[in-house]
Amino acid sequence: MIRMTVLRILCWVHAAAAGTHKLHFFGVATSEGAGFPDYVAVEMMDDVQITYYNNTMKKPIFRTDWINETVGHEFLETLTPYILYSHSRIPRSLRNTVQHFNHTGVHTYQQVGGCELHDDGARRAYLNHEYDGKDFISFDVETKTWVAAVPQAVFYKHKLEANTAWKQITLDYHTRECFQLLEWCLQCEMETLQRKVPAVTLIQRKARESAGTDVICHVTGFYPQEVEVNWIRDGEALLEEGVWSGEVLPNGDRTYQLRKILTVSPEDQKKHSYSCQVGHASLDEKMDVKWVPEAALNMGFVAAGVLAALGLIIAVIIGALIWKKRASAKEQSDASSNSSNSTNGDRCDSIAEKLTTQEENKQLS
Q: 3-class SS at 118?
């Protein structure tokens, strides 16, 4: 258990950032001969990996740069026994399940668990086991019972219920230790997890399947993850039809991004105004970014510019070909003229020589 007194000295206590935060645990056992480690475990806070472990290692390692050595040792001291205990159990669960089904070949057994803290104070813990990627059995933390997801998992439910030691360890982690670890992470990482204001960019493009225009509202760089993004018409009507929404995705720097695309017909573009409205915990009030088609990229001018540039390139190529052809023709003409002059010269020389010979013969006679 984490010694909270020491941690409060090492970490300046702040209120946790708004939103829902999660501490996830992923453990995967793989059949021998698959070319992977027999067991791999990863711990993550929200979308940030904290620890990594596989069966070739003696103990888990940190994958973060925001925990100093002293605090990191304290963290691992609490987490390591659970990771190592799972390592001793999950591969065994895989072997038992494979034998029970009389399966051959490569198979996997996954354990996915963790806890959540909501900004309203609500807490939730969960633990699911999967065989070959499908729900197999889960632990209900509230009722403290194992629940078989499929009839074939009933045999394993009885095995787990008979193992009181594992049941207690599982219960301790998901009702106490997991939440303490998560609260500690939030307290120690406040500098990284402070609220960050979203940046909003509107991008215009021609719609792919209609004569209209797609306007992309790209919202990025915000934290926490919860965000509200809507397209508004004429300053009041919230639009749902003609709007495509992407998922909230991590940027890799502990911030998030989201895209919402509005398709506007040429007629509606002339009759209405549109704006992208963003609501976020970092904002005192909702942000409205108005779409101004005149200020957006004019695809007609772009197309005309491309065609003009293409025409210029073609003209240059044709001109070069004509010049090359004319230069080649001139060379042939010069060569022909030189050949003709050379022939005429030889002929004149022959006639002159003949006349000279005749004159000499006359004088001799």
A: coil
Residue 81: is the preceding peptide bond cis (ω within 30°)? no
The rounded percent of the chain whose pLDDT value lies above 90 is 44
Q: Rounded to an integer, what distance in angstroms lies between the CA atom of residue 286 and that of residue 280? A: 7
Is 90 exceeded by the pLDDT of residue 29?
Answer: yes
Q: What is the pLDDT of residue 317?
A: 61
Nearest to 110 by CA among 166, 28, 53: 28
Q: Which CATH class is domain 199-297?
A: mainly beta
8 Å CB contact between 273 and 235 = yes
pLDDT of residue 255: 87
Could you tell me the residue ranges of all domains in the chain? 4-193, 199-297, 304-328
With beta carbons less than 8 A apart as the criterion, state whether 156 and 56 touch.
no
CATH topology agreement for domains 4-193 and 199-297:
no
Calpha distance 9→12 (Å, rounded): 7
Q: Given this model, what pLDDT does residue 253 score?
A: 79
Sign for the CA dihedral angle at 346, 351, 353, 354 comes to positive
The residues, any chain, with a CB within 8 Å of residue 357's CB and separated by 6 or more, are none
Angle formed by the axes of helices 69-101 and 164-172, to 10°?
A: 140
Least confident of 108-112, 247-251, 252-256, 338-342: 338-342
Distance set, CA 33 to CA 37, 99, 106, 300 (Å): 9, 17, 7, 59
Among candidate residues 174, 196, 192, the one with its CA nearest the CA of residue 112: 174
The fold adopted by the segment(s) 4-193 is: 3.30.500
Is 265 within 8 Å of 250 (Cβ atoms)?
no
pLDDT at 41 over 90: yes
Q: Is the pLDDT of residue 330 over 70?
A: no
